[in-house]
Amino acid sequence: MTDDLSPTDRAKFAAARRAADLVEDGMRVGLGTGSTAAWLVRCLGEAVAAGTRLTGVPTSRRTAELAREVGIEVVTLDEARWLDVTIDGADEFDGALNLIKGGGGALLHEKIVATASDRMVVIADAGKAVETLGAFPLPVEVIPFGWQTTRALIEEALAGLDVATREITIRTNGAAPFVTDEGNHILDLHLGRIGDPHRLSAALNALPGVVENGLFLDICDTVVVGHGDGRAELRDLDAAAPAQAGGAAGAVSRDLDD
Ligand SMILES: O=C[C@H](O)[C@H](O)[C@H](O)COP(=O)(O)O
Q1: Which residue in 218, 215, 192, 219 sits closest to 140, CA to CA?
Q2: Does residue 159 lie within any of the structural domains?
Q3: Are residues 76 and 31 in the same domain?
Q4: For residue range 9-25, what is the model confidence (pLDDT) as tens digits?
Q5: Catalytic residue list
Q6: Residue 43 belongs to domain with CATH number
Q7: Whether residue 147 is found in the same domain as residue 252
Q8: Which of 39, 52, 173, 234 has its CA 20 to 30 A from that of 95?
Q9: Are residue 88 and residue 206 in the same domain, yes or no?
Q10: Angle 189-225-32 (CA atoms, 0-180°, nearest 5)?
Q11: Where are the beta strands (DSSP E) in the chain?
């Protein structure tokens, strides 16, 4: 299943394969979304074919489709109630294992599922490691009602910030706003660096119209880092560097003070 992969895809596969080994017989597993999570789902499909029993709670329609295709029993979160582990990709992770997620637009279900799990394991290629979160645009999910007003509110709260509307290309009609599995839209915040992610997350989620943002703070327990040569290493929260306090506070924190 891995012939002719690019080094990045080999790294994603290596992380996914190592994380699949953490899943034990009988576990209820949250299944993430994205290209790295898709490798995990395929690895778990192989485990199921080899006799492992597991139940999967997918974080998106496309993950649900793939999980069924590879033979994983799929249930809803409310049927499972609580999960042993969620394994998901990320767009960025820092030394304290805080994350930016939502590059694929699934951040809302992903955050709900990860929060309802004993353990969250992130699988990522080494290129996703950052010192300070924010180089990857932060996705914010907003409801369709008045969403352009919500975008203006975010711009006002973070003065001068470049807020982009995520779009999809439509063959006949140009572009249209991206629509999530919950029927919402995604705004991408080009922050560069985030000084105080807890403060930013709380400020964004306090705005009417905002459903959730892609900062996953104090949720991830382990990151499995994959490398292009096929190696994968585990970074656990206990061994991770403490979050940087204040030092990286940039324009975002200042603007929130205003
Ligand atoms: O909404 C999408 C998810 O948060 C993904 O897990 C994240 O964007 C990473 O995706 P990929 O593994 O494709 O880089």
Answers
A1: 215
A2: yes
A3: yes
A4: 999 999 999 999 999 99
A5: 110
A6: 3.40.50.1360
A7: yes
A8: 39
A9: no
A10: 60
A11: 28-31, 55-58, 73-74, 85-88, 92-93, 99-100, 120-125, 138-142, 162-165, 167-170, 174-177, 185-190, 210-213, 215-216, 222-226, 232-236
Q: How far is the CA of 62 from the centre of ligand 1 (A)?
A: 12
Report, as an integer, the average pLDDT of 66-70: 98
Residue 92 falls inside a structural domain: yes
Number of domains in the chain: 2
101 is in an annotated binding site: yes
φ/ψ of 203, rounded to 5, equals -65, -40
pTM: predicted TM-score of the whole model, two decimal places: 0.92
> Which pair of tokens denotes residue 142?
């907003």
Same-domain check for residues 33 and 110: yes
Domain membership of residue 2 (yes or no) is no
**Would the pLDDT of 248 be above 90?**
no
ipTM at complex level: 0.99
In a domain, residue 1? The reply is: no
Distance 31 CA to ligand 1 centre (A): 12
d(CA 58, CA 17): 18
- What domain range includes position 46? 7-129+215-239
CA 89, 93, 97, 100 torsion-angle sign: negative
DSSP 254: H
Q: Would you state the pLDDT for residue 242?
A: 52
Per residue in 200-215, pLDDT (tens digit) is 999 999 999 999 999 9
Please tell me the distance from the alpha carbon of residue 245 to that of residue 235, in angstroms, as a whole number. 21
CB 92 near ligand 1, within 6 Å: no
User: Tokens standing for 161?
Assistant: 């910030």
